């Protein structure tokens, strides 16, 4: 009897949590939609992305799509520490190359990315609130995946590598990648650059949807595609609303940190 009451209470709590999260992101979307004209006028005073950046963005998108295609063809490939280190070097190379390219083009990265628009402390506090609001939306996407495709989103290869790693060095590399490198690099590449270019030429709505889909596909794990799409959309909307890439970076770092905590305590993860 008490188990049934507890289950109903938890379901009602989740519905309330889901409603709050949906309202939060609906409010963000509403504010973004009603300030597009003003934002477009204001952006005229700041040098934005041009055709050279568009060509570079297309090249990056094609590179990611090619990598996605190759990864899905080799589903039996297992990650190793060497793969993680190679991925780290490649990611850093892409970030540095894009940053250098924008520097040569005299694009004001600090202004476009909103690095000085908010403090790191404020960005972190906003990141906490927004990732909490996004959590029930991600869980709902997880539930939809489980109901329609069975088995839930499963575990990504990096999760298996973390669980099976026996050396502190390997786990430290995974933690650095997940909590530091991935939030900074992925938000810079996907949200700031690729989304910024696509939004510049195709509008906010298409840019958000395309960016979230590319972000989900780039993780090379089909069962997690829908939750990752929702996560990427929340990151993009938070960046668009706040005007600072620091907010989505904070959200990304917090989300990955929670995932690592859950991996460190498997009983909590199963619950």
Largest sheet: none
Strand runs, count: 0
Mean pLDDT: 84
N/C terminus separation: 20 Å
Percent helix, as a range, is over 70%
| Secondary-structure element pattern, one letter each | HHHHHHHHHHHH
Estimated share of beta-strand residues: under 5%
The computed structural class is mainly alpha
Radius of gyration from the alpha-carbon trace, in angstroms: 19 Å
Contiguous runs where pLDDT drops below 50 for at least 5 residues: none
Tell me the overall shape.
globular
Number of domains: 1
Count of alpha and pi helical runs: 12
Explain what you see.
It contains twelve helices and no strands. Helix content is 82%, strand content 0%. It has one domain (21-270). With 271 residues, it is mainly alpha-helical. It starts with a helix and ends with a helix.
Helix-strand blueprint:
Layout: H1 2-33, H2 36-43, H3 51-73, H4 81-104, H5 109-113, H6 120-149, H7 157-164, H8 168-202, H9 204-218, H10 225-242, H11 245-264, H12 266-270
Task: Summarize this structure briefly.
This protein is mainly alpha-helical.
């Amino acid at each position: 009897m008490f188990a049934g009451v507890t289950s109903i209470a938890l379901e009602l709590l989740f519905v309330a949590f889901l409603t709050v999260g949906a309202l939060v992101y609906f409010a963000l979307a509403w504010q973004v939609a009603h300030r597009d004209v003003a934002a477009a006028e204001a952006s005229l005073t700041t040098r934005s992305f041009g055709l050279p950046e568009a060509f570079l963005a297309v090249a990056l998108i094609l590179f990611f799509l090619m990598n996605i295609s190759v990864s899905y063809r080799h589903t039996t490939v297992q990650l190793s520490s060497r793969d993680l280190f190679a991925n780290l070097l490649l990611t850093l190379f892409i970030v540095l190359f894009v940053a250098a390219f924008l520097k040569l083009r005299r694009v004001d990265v600090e202004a476009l990315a909103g690095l000085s628009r908010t403090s790191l402390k404020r960005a972190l506090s906003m990141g906490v609130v927004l990732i909490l609001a996004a959590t029930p939306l991600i869980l709902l996407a997880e539930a939809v995946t489980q109901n329609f495709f069975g088995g839930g989103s499963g575990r990504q290869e990096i999760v298996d590598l973390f669980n099976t790693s026996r050396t502190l060095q390997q786990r430290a590399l995974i933690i650095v990648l997940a909590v530091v490198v991935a939030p900074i690099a992925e938000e810079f590449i996907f949200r700031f650059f690729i989304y910024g270019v696509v939004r510049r030429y195709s509008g906010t709505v298409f840019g958000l949807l395309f960016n979230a889909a590319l972000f989900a596909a780039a993780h090379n794990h089909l069962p997690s595609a829908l939750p990752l799409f929702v996560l990427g959309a929340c990151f993009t909307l938070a960046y668009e609303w706040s005007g600072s890439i620091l907010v989505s970076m904070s959200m990304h770092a917090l989300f990955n940190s929670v995932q690592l905590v859950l991996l460190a305590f498997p009983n909590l993860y199963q619950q």
